[in-house]
Amino acid sequence: MLRPKNADVEAGFSTLELVLSVAIIGVVCASAFVAYNNALPLMRADSAMQLLEAALRQARETSVDTRRNFTVTFQGTSELVGAVTGVTCSTSSTPPCFDYFLPERMVYTLFTGVPDTPDGFGNAAAVNYNCPSGTLPCTITFSSDGSVEDGQSGSDNGTIFIGIPGQTKTARAVTILSATGKIKGWQYNGTGWN
Asked: Over the range 65-101, which residues count as b (16 or more CB within 10 Å of their CB) and which as e?
C-alpha cells in the first residue's frame, strides 16, 4: 500500500489550543451571566409596571362597561385586589375581578433621592393616593364614567411607586389622572423618569 504524503503529521488539536478555547468560552459565559444578572431586575420591574397598568386599565374598562363602580385596593407589600361594587368576586364570577401580586421581590416602595414623576402628583407615600396616614391598604374607585375617586376626599390624582428595595434603577411608577382615568407608566433610569 502507498503511504499518504502527510502520514508523519498527527491530526487533532494541541493541549494549548484546547485550554485557550475553553478559557475563551469561560470568559464569554461569565460576561453573559453578569449581563443577565444586571438585566433581570430591570426586566422584572418593567413586567411589574406593565401588570399594574393592565390591572388598572382592566378596572377602568370594567367600570365603564358594567356601569358600576370598580374598587382597586393596594394591600400588603405587593398585592392588588379589584372588585366590582355590589358583586361578590370569586373564581367563577362573570364580571372580571382580580387578585394580583407584583413579580418576585417587587413591592410598593419609595426610593430616597428619586424625585416625583413629571406628572407631579406627589411622592409622599408609595401609594400616593390620599390614603389614610399614607399606609396600606389604600382603595381607589373607578366610576362608571371612567374617572377615579380615592377613599378619602373624592377625586384626586395619584401615583403608585414600585421597585426592588435597594435597587434604585428598578424604580417604576404609574400615575392616574382622576378626571379621565388616564393611566401612564414611568421608568426611572438613574437620573430621571422616562
From this structure: ebebbbbbbbeeebbbbbbbeeeeeeeeeebbbeebe
Domain residues of the chain, as ranges?
15-187
163's CB contacts (< 8 A; 6+ apart) are 45, 106, 107, 109, 111, 170, 171, 172, 188
Is 133 or 157 the better-scoring residue by pLDDT? 157
Q: Which superfamily is assigned to 15-187 in CATH?
A: minor pseudopilin epsh domain (3.55.40.10)
User: Mean pLDDT over residues 55-73, rounded?
Assistant: 92
The helix/strand/coil state of 4 is coil
The residue-averaged pLDDT of 123-139 equals 83
**How many angstroms separate the CA atoms of 175 and 190, rounded?**
19
Answer yes or no: are the C-beta atoms of 160 and 173 closer than 8 Å: yes
Determine the pLDDT at residue 151: 63
